[in-house]
Amino acid sequence: MSVIEIRLPPEVWEDVDEGVEALLDKWLVREGEQVATGQPIANVVIVKTNVEVSAPQAGRLAQILVPEGETFGRERAIARLEVS
What is the mean pLDDT of the chain? Predict the structure, then answer.
């Protein structure tokens, strides 16, 4: 079993100025829940654009690192996913 960190994909940040943060609007799954590859797990708002974050692999959402309503920068992981 291994743990991977979930971040916004780099392409989401392409046209965003350095120093601008995203807002974690809503978690669609809870910590400890199983997720499928590609399953939407969170809604994020960045520069007035809604972004749906999907699970990169199937596994269990082991830890939420950014709570709803908190902002975060481009290098910050928003969650950890436990995969087998």
Answer: 96
Residue 1 pLDDT more than 90? no
Bridging pattern class, strands 2-6 and 79-83: antiparallel
One-letter identity of residue 17: D
Q: Mean per-residue pLDDT for 74-79? A: 96
Q: Which residues of 32-42 are buried (b: 16+ CB within 10 A; e: fewer)?
A: eeebeeeeebb
User: How far is residue 54's CA from residue 49's CA, in Å, rounded to a whole number?
Assistant: 16
Quickly tell me which residue has 């709570």 as its tokens. Answer: 67
Query: What is the reported pLDDT for 84?
Result: 84
